[in-house]
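Ligand: iron/sulfur cluster. Inputs:
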Amino acid sequence: MVRLVLVLGDQLTADVAALKAADRARDVVVMAEVMGEGTSVPHHPQKIALILAAMRKFAVALREAGWRVAYSRLDDAENSQTISGELLRRAVEFGASEVLATKPGEWRVLQDLEALPVPVRVLEDDRFICSQAEFATWAEGRKQLRMEWFYREMRRKTGLLMEGDQPAGGQWNFDHDNRKPAKADLLRPRPGDFAPDAVVEEVLALVEARFAHFGRLRPFRWATDRAGALQALGEFVEERLARFGAEQDAMLEGEAFLSHALISPYMNIGLLGPLEVCQAVEAAWKAGRIPIAAAEGFIRQVIGWREYVRGIWALKGPEYLEGNALDHRRALPRVYWGAETGMACMKAAIGQTRDLAYAHHIQRLMVTGNFALLAGVDPAEVHEWYLSVYVDAFEWVEAPNTIGMSQFADGGLLGSKPYVSSGAYIDRMSDHCAGCRYRVKEKVGERACPFNLLYWHFLDRHRERFQGNPRMGQMYRVWDGMDAGHRTAVLAGAEAVLGRLDRGEVV
Ligand code: FAD
Ligand code: SF4
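Predicted complex:
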């Protein structure tokens, strides 16, 4: 009997479990471009275009490798516009008895597959270094799931940056040498753009006609096949990796990319594997081309953070998405969808998100994430925004980063304290404040930086939860040491900012 082999838009590799388990002489690969997925949240047009173009190219590669592929284009007349609908249609067409699928990276999609009236075999997605079972074993019985301990296990498991059972360079962590503010006067090699070919142009026209979501579609700069993704990786390793560690947390006006890799979308849709990426980085260090701090800083992100958040997502299940430990209820302010703002740091992060579908980690965490948390925005709305606007956003990686790391909505599973800061952090790590309508040094008054006002408002309103936190006690002592009149003025200033956000006025 024929089986259908489902390949989703973020499973574009011959290494994906369902393809490895299938028989190319007998089974039919099903790939489907559907409006149901393109509009499940208002995905950035560049993200939709990347996935559709990469799917089309991968389908060609599969056919060349001898697979039968039933491919549904978005504008096919008979397209039912849902994954389930297309599977049922193909099941009838080919008289198929079973569907083979690789576990999707979104609970909603898994639930849809499990509800199908044909038998579906869902295989574990083994494109990760740590399997779900291994993560669950590691997590069992631990009070706190500290990323650092998990990361060391992954170093030992992969042998990356290891000398025997000891970390290369004598340390597990080189953060001390990394994370510096960036210098505005340095010339940085900009990552190369991939000019759209005929396949990409056709997809761009389709996306332009069908999706009116937030975000600019053009210029479209992403690679859409494995060869391009490998080229992007090679270019990063040669040209930017050496400064990656030092610049990892820095922000500069007009410099969207700094020394970042820009490879998360390729890893997340299957064009690159996490281990091969880390091995390329390690090789550059072994060849003496980059400092160990840069190699360690990068590898930590991939075999540490990336694997860890995936483990949390799989372990905690769909309920994790509902977390709202701080009971935050504010609607997402309009500024996140591009409304005017006088806050230079927010304008830069959201503006480049609109134009490029990209912002780097510290922009996501300490600018847009920090602001949403301080302002008490409903984490479900924050989650939907991050899932929508970034080219690399898939639930398994986006949700733990947003709901856990950024919004503390999981009550502290991912981080022992919330990632909140006043304007001082942004001032230290960026050059945004110099050109801002607000004054980062002012603590009260019309011109006071909104981060300053909201920071104390956040601490004040969550005193019961955080005062006893050993990493936050000092800040409460500072707050309590301020005179009562000043504290009242700060809280009133914060309330005024929140009122403007609620009324949809410019902040
Ligand atoms: P670099 O800064 O060059 O880092 C190298 C690689 O490390 C990345 O490609 C990525 O694969 C990995 N990495 C780094 N940090 C993380 C992390 N915290 N979690 C997982 N992987 C990490 N990453 C996504 O891939 N998809 C998302 O939807 C996503 N949403 C996020 C939402 C929030 C609120 C925050 C704070 C972070 C989010 N991240 C997400 C993590 C991180 O911001 C991106 O992986 C990174 O910015 C991608 O750009 P880059 O390839 O230039 O990364
Ligand atoms: Fe951002 Fe405040 Fe600095 Fe303006 S002053 S750029 S709002 S941190």
